[in-house]
Design a protein that fits this description.
By secondary structure, the protein is mostly helical. It folds into two domains: 79 residues, Orthogonal Bundle (Rna Polymerase Sigma Factor, Chain: A), CATH 1.10.1740; 67 residues, Winged helix-like DNA-binding domain superfamily/Winged helix DNA-binding domain (Arc Repressor Mutant, subunit A, Orthogonal Bundle). The protein contains seven helices and no strands. α1 crosses α2, α1 packs parallel to α3 and α2 crosses α3. Belongs to the sigma-70 factor family. ECF subfamily.
């Protein structure tokens, strides 16, 4: 197995936390992700472990989202005190990212928050490395323009 669980644990946790905005649930889903990963050795083909980890995490987040009561869906930002120190630019960026189509949002989160390499993203999204890079540049350009519009 070439995936170092210690190296990937925080990244999977951040990915889950960003998608569901609940620290306790994100911790549970992260643990469940690694349990399922370790229980499925037939998916541990060379070069596919990281892809499989994110696939598990993504599916668990989607499942937990569908199981949430309706009133929880209105909560967009958790009540953690850490968020009191976020500067306006980060809030604006977060809002702009939320407005992206789901696949673009996921691509940006995986690339810049979880630092997933372009090669892994290309297999995860079924695109060439060049197409992934081009799409990321296009998304970043859109985010930059959206932030400029908000400043004006």
């Amino acid at each position: 197995m070439s995936v170092d669980i210690n190296d990937q644990y925080d990244k999977i946790f951040r990915y889950c936390y960003y998608k569901i905005h609940d620290r306790d649930l994100a911790e549970d889903l992260t643990q469940e992700t690694f349990l399922r990963f370790l229980e499925s050795p037939h998916y541990h083909d060379i070069g596919k472990e990281l892809h499989y980890l994110y696939t598990i995490a993504s599916n668990l987040c989607k499942d937990s989202f569908h199981r949430r009561p309706r009133e929880d869906l209105d909560e967009s930002i958790p009540d953690d005190k850490d968020y009191e120190d976020i500067i306006l630019t980060n809030v604006a960026l977060g809002n702009a990212i939320k407005e992206l189509p789901d696949e673009d949002k996921e691509l940006i989160i995986l690339r810049y928050i979880n630092e997933v390499p372009i090669g892994v993203l290309s297999s995860l999204f079924g695109m060439s490395r060049f197409a992934v890079s081009r799409r990321i540049r296009k998304i970043l350009s859109k985010l930059k323009n959206d932030l400029k519009k908000e400043e004006d």
